[in-house]
């Protein structure tokens, strides 16, 4: 990867996540285009580009990225509300990184190598990763549906938390095995046991404990088998 692109990304990360206080974000959300913090934030980004390059000859790059950053943040501040804040955050970052790549290509003749997309092993890895997310969640739900315990008076958990925890744990197991760190799978299981089964112990509910144990072992088992199969295919 080109050093110029890396420097532009570093400047963006520092400007957006390290040098943008919460008060600035709130001020932009409240005052929108009238917020002085919006323009100060853009100025910080431009200054960071000069800093990481240690060269004033990059003024065209700094100015272009600054203006694009101002446009993206201005549009975000105009259209953002409590319902779409999460989506707009990711859209905002995607546009910022996309504009950085475009500016890098324009001023530094950068070219991203996407030849790896023609590699069969990449597509096998993608298919394995996708399978371990929602498809596996649905498969597990079908398998253990008949054992779901009734808890009318039990504590309420976060909505869909179990599903997302399962997706994260399977993805991590997939990564650990493909990178030959089998011991990390044990640490992950131990960590989940400490938090999850500690709560179950206090409830003295055998059915719920068995249900969670079945779900955990099934999730780990599917992830391990899938990872080992994928590892064999891409070897």
UniProtKB/TrEMBL annotation:
The keyword Transcription does not apply. InterPro entries: Phage_phiKZ_Orf197. Keywords: Membrane, Transmembrane, Transmembrane helix. The chain crosses the membrane at residues 38-56, 62-79, 86-108, 120-144, 172-191, 211-230. This is DUF3307 domain-containing protein. It comes from Pedobacter zeae.
């Amino acid at each position: 990867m080109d050093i110029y692109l890396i420097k532009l990304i570093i400047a963006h990360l520092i400007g957006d996540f390290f040098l943008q206080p919460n008060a600035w974000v709130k001020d932009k959300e409240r005052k929108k285009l009238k917020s002085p913090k919006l323009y100060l934030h853009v100025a910080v980004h431009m200054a960071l580009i000069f800093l990481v390059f240690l060269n004033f000859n990059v003024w065209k790059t700094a100015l272009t990225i600054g203006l694009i950053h101002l446009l993206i943040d201005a549009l975000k501040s105009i259209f953002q509300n409590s319902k779409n804040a999460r989506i707009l955050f990711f859209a905002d970052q995607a546009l910022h990184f996309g504009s950085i790549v475009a500016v890098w290509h324009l001023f530094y003749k950068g070219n991203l190598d996407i030849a790896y997309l023609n590699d069969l092993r990449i597509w096998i890895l993608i298919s394995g990763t996708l399978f371990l997310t929602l498809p596996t969640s649905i498969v597990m739900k079908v398998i253990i549906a008949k054992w779901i315990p009734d808890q009318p008076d039990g504590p309420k958990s976060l909505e869909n938390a179990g599903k997302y925890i399962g997706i994260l744990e399977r993805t991590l197991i997939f990564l650990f095995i493909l990178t030959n760190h089998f011991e990390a799978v044990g640490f992950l299981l131990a960590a989940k046991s400490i938090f999850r089964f500690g709560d179950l112990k206090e409830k003295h509910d055998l059915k719920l404990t068995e249900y969670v144990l079945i779900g955990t072992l099934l999730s780990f088992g599917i992830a391990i088998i899938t990872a080992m199969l994928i590892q064999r295919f891409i070897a």
